[in-house]
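CORE FACILITY INTAKE
Project code: CF-77B
Contact: R.S. (postdoc)
Sample description: multi-component assembly, two entities in total
Requested service: structural model of the whole complex
Turnaround: standard
Below are the sequence entries exactly as provided by the requester. Do not edit them.
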Amino acid sequence: MLGRILEIIRKQFRQMFRHRRMRTMLFVPPMIQLIIFGYAVNLDVENVRTAWMDNDKTPASRELLAAFQGSGRFHVISLPRDEREIERVLDRGEVAAVVRVLPGFGREIQRGRSPEVQVAIDGTNSNSAWLITGYANEVLALHGARIAEEQQAVRQALSGSAATGPRGPRLRSTARVWFNPDLKSRNYFVPGIIVNLTMVVTVMLTAMAIVREREMGTMEQLMVTPIRPIELMIGVTVPFAFVGLMDVVLVTSLAVLVLEVPFRGSMLLLLFCAVLFLMTSLGVGLFMSTIARTQQQALMSSFFFATPAFMLSGFAFPIRNMPEVIQYLTYLNPLRYFIEIVRGIFLKGTGASVLWPQMVMLFVYGVAILSFSAMRFRKRLD
Amino acid sequence: MTFRRTWATMRKEIKHIVRDPRSLVLALAQPFLMLLLFGYALSLDVDRIPTLIYDADGTSRSRDLTQRFLASRFFEIRGHVNSYDAIEREIDRGSVLIGLVVPQDYSRRVDAGTDAQVQILLDGSDANTATIALSYVSSLIQNYSLELRSEGRGSGTRPAPPIDARLRVWYNSTMESKNQVVPGLIAVIMMIIAVLLTSLTIAREWETGAMEQLLSTPLRPAEMVLGKMMAYLLVGVMDVAIAMAVGIFVFDVPFRGNLLLLAGASLIFLFGALCWGIFLSAATRSQVMAYQLGIVTSFMPSMVLSGFVWAIDNMPEVIQWITRIVPARYMVTILKVIFLKGVGLEALWVEFLCLLAFATLVFLGAAYKLRQKLG
């Protein structure tokens, strides 16, 4: 039995690596994709293109400008003169935020009133808008606090002593950020991309390869040989598992070496979990091959599975934001578990002691879907 | 190039499509279901962040502070604990993102009028959520601090902050991510479906030998590309119409622009995407290769490099250049701008020109590739 399986594996490998183009397709696209997408998936807003409209033109308003620019978040690139120009730069997307200082700003501050500062933010990218809102609030609050302190200092100086009562408490917050202290969103997304690339390669290739053999009639030829369906199935899937593992190793190394995503856990654990995950994804590929008659159908069905699985895995869109029903649905999604594992290993350096529930789920899925597909596969052959 | 031969190719292709109802249903239902599912599920809104509180002070002062966190819809307090370790454990397990620690001497320091500190423990792995959360915590603390100080000064009334910040978000005042995700999704889904629809057609004809038969007819490559393309354009237009309807009526995404302009952009974009599929299948002559290349060149690039979620401005310069050859980038911009901003050609002409250039180039490329392979 082992001999026959090995024979199929050898045949499968030869088919896979016979063409140079196919050899390249198996490994190069995932690597290129990881690099490009790894650099692209970035939600951090660093330099907000800002328009500054100063209708006050006093030292106070210039100080505010300095505070905005000094924050390192805002980059003033445009000085609109009127309302219409503000609208134009926002409409065309030339700037993401407009700050408007109204006339009398300096005077009001001197009198200890609280003058208005208007900030208009482009909301077409809601996430950037959240960040910019936060930044603007922070800059204005900090600048306000400084003004308040200066005013108090002046009052104390005027009254000639510190006898004006206690200065009052000042509350500060210190933050300790774990796992990703630089707060780089890339570090969060890249593990998700690794998972997706692995899944696409394995599910689609398996489904396509098997249907192709059936379409070309070579499956019929294999059936008249003494090979048993289970042996054929193992022989067909093992090479893809191997390719999948190779891809995991390749893209993980690239992520660490080129994209500089921290890798704090154990590579061995990652590989072990990858094997667990490959059981599922190969099982799905096998299943797709049993429900499709043509390659086109195999592709469409794999895609029909892969896209929702990817989108609902929590790779970018947090699962806790989803409607409750869909949150429960994601428990059925093997990608969810693998992403949690990969993220845990990459960023948190967690081990099997924390990740075992996810690993158990992957194992259960893998066994279930593999045996289910194997049954169907066998029926199709008989 | 004659219209009659193009027409005949189109009719033949439509027959192919109709004859395989399963694929047709998939091609029509898939975009609809994807948009419906993802429109509901994919949200980047940051609110109700699971938070734990460790109040070591335990006085009415510290409770007043934690009350502020409870009152904000931004944080969802998952409970109170009695030690650092408990917070660490929960953050490790990923069940909360933030731990708020009020130190033992908090109320003593505030009452004495000296500086007090609270500590925030934060799971930074989701950096985006963490950054937004952090800026919220810091604003909240900043404002509360001002209140405390004026109270210390004994001026009974609530203080006005030194600067009255008036933030207004244009085009999407509630900052709901669905208003951005749904238009973007339409472009991404269109691109994928269009490329996949056609990437298999010519390759299939090579593989089944039908190409040899077509070779012996007077049919020209350009006619063939156009004919095939028109058949699939019909399917694509139906997809777009369905997707738009779902976006506007199901998800209530505001539609502020011109429908005709959007229809024009969609036609150009679909034409280009479909031709790209034909180009791939002519170039590879194999369904597997055509499809794989189709996925590689359409799905991930349109998702990641189009500005659909990840703003192009934030990418490194080199990647920004790469995004210029991703047609979905222009379509995503056009969709978002027409949907949300409601401005017209005066702000979008560059994007339109780029789409046109893309469609023309790819059409010529497909026809050329086909002639080369036929010759």
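Facility notes:
- Strands of chain A lie at 48-54, 74-78, 97-101, 116-122, 171-178.
- Chain A touches chain B through 112 residues (CB under 8 Å).
Invoice: internal transfer
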